[in-house]
């Protein structure tokens, strides 16, 4: 007897036509045909089942604040930073919690059950940290929320930046953040990387830094971050987010940099939607698009995962909480349209992100958590193409969200009465 069996599922690792049995919130069996009964059954009917989506880079303290105090008319990074600077002193704990929890509702509907959020610590009131620590407990039954102490105005540049970050960590924020390229000088940026890595080593914490989010090829703080990671023995516990300057760096320099990053086991987190929207704003033509070197970093064995970064906030007026939208954009900008490359991109919003976040028990194997998504698509390639409905979202084997399939009715003489966009147009070779 199982608590739940999902029948006839195509799995995101490529297996097709398998049953998944769930007991006590964990995957108990994955077999071609489970000869048993369950309290509940879901017929996947040849649709894709994946582990829940993960977002390793988000700003939940700003989400859904679009229009406060006013719209970002230019759509630029600098105007967004300016708007956030105006909004931040007016933030209340209650409003922050309301917006963040409402975003988590959206995330669940999209099958997004793991989120790492940066928490702005530049305001010494730390109302952002107070609010998101409370949100972490509110959503704990259905979303695993990690928090990063993020000195958004600069660790040294903000008047009380050093003390505020330490206080946020003392309050229970569990990851050390930074933004070295936003310090006053390159040297202060370098010193901030060293100081923040030392704090992480002393406290036994992970590191996740906004690093080189600029078009400047001479912004090379990722080199310092990799070196300090090795120095402090933090291999595998450090993430470099954005790394957009790498798209403009000299190829010879990058040929040295990537092996250093691999030695340090740096986790790389590009944010495709935001990077291509905000970078290259000083260019005429040819115009840079801001994505780091995804294909080359993956080829070197680095763990690359994609973040959503923003949804409807001062920096980005778009966004839907859909990690497949993120991967879909990455596919186009990185020109990774090959069959195996598509699988890599799907991994970048699932298993790679789980690895970045250090999630235990994640995956599609016996003993893993039954945190699963049933999608209206036949395989990962089709999921990237369609960004399909999340028919079922399961947390610990319990359905927490359900969406009706997208079925179109046609009223055309001699043509089919309905179209299931997720299954009726699967390429012949994949069918």
Automatic annotation (TrEMBL):
EC number from the UniProt entry: 3.5.4.1
GO biological process assignments: cytosine catabolic process
Keyword Zinc-finger among record annotations: no
InterPro entries noted in UniProt: Amidohydro_3 (IPR013108), Metal-dep_hydrolase_composite (IPR011059), Metal_Hydrolase (IPR032466), Metallo-hydrolase_Enzymes (IPR052349)
Recorded GO MF terms: cytosine deaminase activity; isoguanine deaminase activity; metal ion binding
Keyword Magnesium assigned: no
Keywords (A to Z) from UniProt: Hydrolase, Metal-binding
Amidohydrolase domain span: 40-400
Pfam families: Amidohydro_3
Record NCBIfam families: PRK07572.1
This protein's name: Cytosine deaminase
Organism of provenance: Allorhizobium borbori
Lineage: Bacteria, Pseudomonadati, Pseudomonadota, Alphaproteobacteria, Hyphomicrobiales
